[in-house]
Design brief:
With about 375 residues, the chain is mainly α. The protein is built from 14 helices and three strands. The protein has one domain. The chain is globular. The two termini are about 30 Å apart.
């Protein structure tokens, strides 16, 4: 390991700054939501504990050679698959999903660990085969690696987690060189899987979420309620917002799961267009720094590892914001660094540490390819 002073000099501070801005907005939103619950601030304290643990993990990982994940990526993958199997047998059912382990009042979703484990295994696979042209074999093998945890997530059922696992793979496949014919076949396969899921796997409430996405006004007081209230919150924010702690949708508790699934709507209502612009600016900075890091390394594994982190953050942001804007079905996906949730925040910090581990190994002054 290099000296601590040299390590701090080579940290990507812009990447850290972007994550800090997102977390600051998340804390503000959680604080506001808790005002409507009597001001006990239990969630705020739990989020703070998760942040401390996450930053500690990120620091340790950033000081660790990223080659560790190349050597143990397959083991992490199988451990993640085993945890998804175990939670189906030993886990607790919360919010309709048997996907939680609960210890001393803290709930943990193994699917969060699986997201990171999938990134490491796909980075190992694509890194080893990066010098050859992307083929149907690569498409099939990497797809099978992803399909196993996706099916286990669907069995919980956790459609949001399954969707994110699939989107991470899709982003990495794109950068690995997938062609239009590969993506076209994916659309066909996805359609068949969706049809089978609708007939066999999906619960009634999940079907209602999907049908509500296409027509929220069909049942605005029941299945379309969340989406309708989120749209009202976003639309009422204006330029400067109603003020922190003054949003009618969050403070009068019209907006369910405001600190998790609809935290973006809370920020839009109370901090307005300015707050939303700051969120988008921080996300863009986060994405740009990750792409620059991936392009700056000569190690194929390191590049795909960072691209996997990019895919994770991008997928979470698109699905979360898309659901809040009624552009995608609401599936309970967290906004990275912003939404309340120890598992999600811990995963975001660990992924950040991995990206920093690659960033500190780059040769100063290296030109982008």
């Amino acid at each position: 390991m290099e000296s601590l002073g040299r390590h701090w000099q080579r940290i990507d501070w812009l990447l850290l700054f972007a994550a800090f801005v997102l977390f600051a907005f998340g804390i503000a939103a959680i604080y506001s939501v808790e005002l409507s619950h009597g001001g006990s601030f239990v969630l705020l304290r739990k989020q703070g504990i998760a942040l401390v643990l996450g930053l500690a993990a990120a620091f340790v990982i950033s000081r660790t050679n990223y080659q560790f994940f190349r050597n143990y990526g397959r083991g992490l993958y199988f451990l993640g698959v085993l945890s998804l199997i175990a939670v189906l047998v030993l886990g607790r059912t919360l919010n309709g999903s048997t996907g939680w382990f609960v210890f001393a009042g803290f709930a943990f979703q193994p699917v969060e660990f699986m997201k990171f484990a999938l990134i490491t295994e796909l980075a190992r696979y694509f890194g080893e085969h990066a010098e050859r042209r992307f083929s149907w074999k690569d498409f099939g093998r990497s797809g099978l690696i992803t399909l196993v945890p996706v099916l286990l997530a669907v069995a919980q059922p956790d459609l949001g987690g399954a969707m994110l696992l699939g989107l991470i793979w899709l982003v990495m496949v794109f950068f690995a060189g997938a062609k239009l014919r590969h993506l076209g076949s994916l659309v066909l396969i996805g359609g068949v899987i969706f049809a089978l899921g609708w007939l066999v796997v999906f619960h009634d409430y999940q079907k209602e979420r999907i049908t509500t996405f296409f027509n929220p006004a069909s049942d605005p007081l029941d299945t379309g309620y969340n989406v309708t209230q989120a749209k009202i919150a976003i639309g009422s924010g204006g330029l400067l917002g109603t003020g922190l702690g003054s949003g009618s949708q969050s403070q009068l508790r019209f907006l369910p799961q405001a600190e998790t699934d609809f935290v973006f709507a809370v920020i839009a209502e109370e901090l307005g267009f300015i707050g939303v612009a700051a969120i988008f600016g921080a996300l863009v900075l986060l994405f740009v720094r990750l792409i620059i890091t991936a392009r700056s390394t000569r190690d194929n594994f390191a590049a795909f590892l960072v691209l996997g982190v990019f895919g994770l953050y991008l997928a979470q942001a698109l699905v979360h914001i898309g659901a809040n804007l009624s552009l995608l079905p609401a599936t309970g996906v967290a906004l990275p660094f912003v939404s309340y949730g120890g598992s999600s925040l811990l995963l975001s910090c660990i992924a950040l540490g991995v990206a920093e581990s690659v960033a500190v190994t780059l040769t100063p002054g290296r030109k982008l390819s």
